[in-house]
């Protein structure tokens, strides 16, 4: 009897274990398991971020030191908001105090090298370097009036202070941004000291260089840092608050309601949600990892290949930086460089952004049809009725656009009010209510994110200042213009290559600053409108994040998808084909950017360009109704390109080619279906 009881008990245990396994499997197969990542998934996310995002490699602070660091970062954010809204003191005081705090926080947060960090440990060398580096900028802060009034008469100890300030900025940039941008800065500094400056005495050249780079607004304190301290930081803080309202999950749920049930739904969800989340985060790698931890497993589960899944997320997340209304930090710099209101940048960016994401969306749809994939089951999707109740989360973004585009107030004031509005709307939602603790977290996150942008802008100022001082900009412009002759296409291709090469490991903000000072004037000299020239370098600086061989966003996506990194990068580049074409188009036809255009022209360009993007996407995918043979793929690409180029002749020819290919493909598909039946 005892033996029977024992066997019955064992059978009962096995039955219970099977039931638990089935429940766990069902849980993993539902949508909710992806939108609420567990502890293991979060650890994987952190690992990927540390590998591909230098900002995630930080010191480990716990206990009271952590509280102290958090308070410093939060106080910095509050200081930035106060200064941009209310401060009336000298601009030099604002800029030097900003950079001094960036140096201070940079050393506190980022260690000298990657790897496992000791808890609550900071080497004495870092402490000394931090004090000297931050002190150099604070020296300028407290002696700003004297320094401005003394003109060019600088003592040697002031030059040494300037050298310490420059070296400290370079070291912080190395820690939180990376080596590539320092290689560029190093090249120009060496050029200036060895050849570019005319002073025959080496120490005279050093003195002149440091005086201009550190003590004037032609170097570190030039436009990039000015715009960063005045506008960018406030919008970064706004993004940190917005994320804590739960808007990222809202965007993902909204994307699922819109596209989840259709063929290949998870990939379409990735395109929509990444576009929406990316415009807030402003980081290609960060957005790829954050939304990719949800969308990539969903895509793989649906049937997409690993390389394709990672590529969809990387391409979509990278495109978030060209998505209005936020568009990442570089858009604020563009408004300042071009000399137009930020609302102008937003309006002109809409059509290119639509073309970019439409191209990706079409590609994932055709891939789904080719593979015979289905969407997410209806019972696993979020209910629209429940989701619409949280539509109020969009209010801060909507009001920000209204305030900025309507010129009701300055950008920094609009962002500050949007921060308060995001706190207010969060009070409605019990799950994501912003508490005092979350306010501190958001201020801390905003301060930490500002370190990288501020350091990159400072080094970009060194590069642009050195180029200006040495006259290299004019030499470069004259050289490329002479090489290109009257052929604009040559200048465009050379500029594109410069942007992509420089963008391999250089943040978009710094990349744009450098290109705006060097290559954008080349295009302007060749007859390209100022706005179009700046958009051109902006777009190709962004696309470097998915362009091999250094495609950080694609590599981050491949790490989550567990796919081949290089194949993922090539797939991402193919999906983002629109971003390689559209910039050329608006340089030749600025009407795409709403420059000197009429409403009819805008509608015509929008419709024909969308059809053209469809033709190119279908050709690259090799499928539309049925597989497309190589000849028809070439014809579809040619037709698509002609449709994207504005003009009645090109539109008519391109439309004939694309529609002809689609009609033949439909006929072949019908015959294939009939033959199979």
TrEMBL record:
Annotated region (Disordered), positions in chain: 1-27
Domain of life from the UniProt record: Bacteria
Membrane-spanning intervals of the chain: 67-87, 93-112, 124-142, 154-172, 179-199, 219-242, 349-366, 387-405, 449-468, 488-510, 575-595, 602-620, 632-664
This protein's UniProt keywords: Membrane, Transmembrane, Transmembrane helix
All copies of domain TRAP C4-dicarboxylate transport system permease DctM subunit, residue ranges: 165-599
Statement: the UniProt record of this protein carries the keyword Membrane: yes
Protein name, per record: TRAP transporter, 4TM/12TM fusion protein
Species this chain originates from: Eubacterium cellulosolvens (strain ATCC 43171 / JCM 9499 / 6) (Cillobacterium cellulosolvens)
């Amino acid at each position: 009897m005892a033996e029977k009881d024992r066997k019955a008990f064992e059978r009962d245990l096995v039955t219970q274990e099977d039931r638990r396994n089935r429940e766990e499997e069902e849980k993993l197969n539902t949508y909710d398991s992806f939108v609420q990542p567990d502890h293991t998934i979060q650890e994987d996310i952190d690992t990927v971020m540390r590998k591909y995002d230098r900002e995630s490699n930080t010191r480990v602070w716990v206990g009271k030191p952590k509280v102290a660091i958090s308070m410093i970062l939060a106080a910095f954010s509050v200081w930035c908001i106060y200064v941009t809204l209310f401060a009336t003191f000298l601009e030099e005081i604002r800029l030097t105090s900003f950079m001094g705090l960036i140096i201070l926080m940079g050393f506190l947060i980022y260690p000298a090298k990657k790897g496992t960090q000791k808890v609550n440990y900071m080497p004495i060398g870092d402490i000394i370097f931090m004090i000297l580096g931050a002190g150099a900028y604070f020296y300028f802060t407290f002696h700003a009036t004297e320094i401005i009034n003394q003109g060019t008469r600088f003592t040697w100890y002031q030059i040494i202070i300037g050298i310490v300030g420059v070296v400290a900025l370079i070291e912080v940039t190395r820690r939180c941004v990376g080596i590539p941008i320092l290689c560029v800065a190093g090249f120009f500094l060496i050029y200036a000291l060895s050849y570019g400056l005319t002073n025959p005495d080496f120490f005279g050249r050093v003195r002149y260089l440091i005086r201009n780079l550190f003590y004037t607004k032609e170097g570190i304190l030039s436009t990039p840092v000015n715009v960063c301290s005045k506008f960018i930081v406030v919008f970064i803080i706004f993004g940190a608050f917005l994320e804590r309202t739960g808007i990222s999950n809202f965007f993902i749920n909204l994307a699922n309601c819109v596209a989840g049930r259709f063929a290949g739904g998870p990939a379409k969800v990735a395109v929509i949600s990444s576009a929406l989340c990316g415009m807030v985060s402003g980081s290609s790698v960060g957005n790829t990892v954050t939304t990719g931890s949800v969308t990539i497993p969903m895509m793989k589960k649906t049937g997409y290949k690993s390389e394709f899944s990672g590529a969809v997320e990387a391409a979509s997340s990278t495109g978030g930086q060209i998505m209005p209304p936020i568009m990442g930090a570089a858009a604020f710099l563009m408004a300042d460089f071009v000399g137009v209101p930020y609302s102008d940048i937003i309006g002109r960016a809409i059509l290119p952004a639509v073309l970019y994401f439409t191209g990706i969306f079409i590609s994932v749809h055709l891939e789904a049809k080719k593979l015979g994939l289905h969407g997410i089951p209806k019972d696993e999707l979020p209910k629209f009725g429940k989701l619409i109740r949280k539509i109020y989360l969009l209010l801060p973004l909507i009001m920000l656009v209204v305030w900025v585009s309507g010129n009701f107030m300055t950008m920094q004031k609009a962002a500050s009010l949007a921060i308060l509005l995001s706190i207010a709307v969060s009070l409605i939602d019990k799950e994501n209510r912003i508490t005092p603790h979350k306010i501190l977290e958001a201020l801390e996150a905003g301060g930490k994110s500002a370190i990288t942008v501020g350091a990159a802008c400072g080094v970009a100022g060194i590069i642009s200042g050195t180029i200006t001082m040495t006259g290299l900009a004019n030499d470069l412009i004259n050289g490329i213009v002479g090489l290109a002759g009257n052929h604009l296409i040559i200048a465009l291709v050379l500029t594109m290559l410069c942007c992509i090469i420089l963008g391999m490991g250089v943040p978009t903000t710094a990349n744009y600053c450098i290109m705006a000072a060097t290559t954008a004037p080349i295009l302007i000299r060749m007859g390209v409108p100022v706005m179009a020239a700046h958009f051109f370098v902006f777009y190709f600086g962004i696309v470097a994040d998915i362009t091999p061989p250094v495609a950080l966003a694609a590599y981050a996506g491949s790490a989550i998808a567990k796919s081949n990194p290089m194949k993922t990068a090539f797939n991402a580049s193919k999906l983002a084909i629109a971003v390689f074409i559209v910039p050329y188009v608006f340089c030749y036809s600025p009407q795409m950017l709403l420059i000197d255009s009429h409403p009819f022209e805008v509608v015509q360009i929008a419709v024909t360009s969308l059809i053209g993007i469809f033709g190119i996407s279908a050709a690259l995918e090799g499928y539309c109704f049925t597989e497309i043979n190589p000849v028809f793929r070439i014809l579809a690409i040619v037709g698509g390109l002609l449709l994207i180029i504005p003009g009645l002749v090109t539109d008519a020819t391109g439309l004939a080619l694309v529609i002809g290919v689609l009609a033949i493909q439909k006929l072949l598909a019908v015959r294939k279906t009939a033959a199979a039946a």
